[in-house]
Amino acid sequence: MDSSKPSPFAPYLFTGIGMAVAGWGGLFLLFTFSLPFLGYRWLFFVLLTLALAGTALPVAYFLNLRFPSKPPAGPNVIVRQALWLGVYGDLLAWFQLGRLLTPVLAVFLAAGLILIEVLLRLNERSRFKPPADDGDE
Fold first, then answer.
1. Residue pair 94/44 in contact by the 8 Å Cβ criterion
2. What is d(CA 120, CA 42) in angstroms, rounded to the nearest whole number?
3. Could you read off the pLDDT tens digit of each residue along the chain, which spans 137 residues?
4. What is the sign of the dihedral through the CA atoms of 77, 82, 83 and 89?
5. How far apart are CA 51 and CA 53, in angstroms?
6. C-alpha torsion 12→106→109→76, nearest 10
7. Closest CA relative to residue 128, chosen from 81, 78, 70, 80
8. Contact at 8 Å (CB) between 27 and 51?
9. CA distance linking residue 73 with residue 106, whole number of Å
């Protein structure tokens, strides 16, 4: 398979829809039928991660399609980028529960997660070996 050709969209769409439906549906059921006990609080964070990452998965695919990179983003990179949004949402919810969330903290958290992703992509770029030419020269 050609490494410059993007992967098909269907797996990302179906996976994203499945994750989003499970996450948002689970959050609805959690809010509707549960009391605020400790186990349900942890379930809230799991379902929030699932909902946000599932919603962001097709968006991450299209952003990587619109802004290609060398090496091209593979499925693991696209899923990781979608999961960053879930982690970011969890961190915002966690800090809000403790009444610690401020706009400045939200911006710094976003900047820190973006910096981590940029550094991971730079690491991948430094290890990238382009496909060997077949000697067409």
1. no
2. 28
3. 455 677 788 989 999 999 999 999 999 999 999 998 999 999 999 999 999 999 999 999 999 999 988 888 889 999 999 999 999 999 999 999 999 999 999 999 999 999 999 999 999 888 877 777 766 55
4. positive
5. 6
6. 0
7. 70
8. yes
9. 27
Reduced 3-state DSSP string for the chain: CCCCCCCCCHHHHHHHHHHHHHHHHHHHHHHHHCCCCHHHHHHHHHHHHHHHHHHHHHHHHHHHHHCCCCCCCCHHHHHHHHHHHHHHHHHHHHHHHCCCCCHHHHHHHHHHHHHHHHHHHHHHHHCCCCCCCCCCC
Q: Which two tokens stand for residue 85?
A: 């949004």
Per-residue pLDDT, 17: 96
CA angle 47, 101, 27 (to 5 degrees): 15
Exposed e or buried b per residue across 53-69, where buried means at least 16 C-beta atoms within 10 angstroms of its C-beta: bbbbbbebbeebeeeee
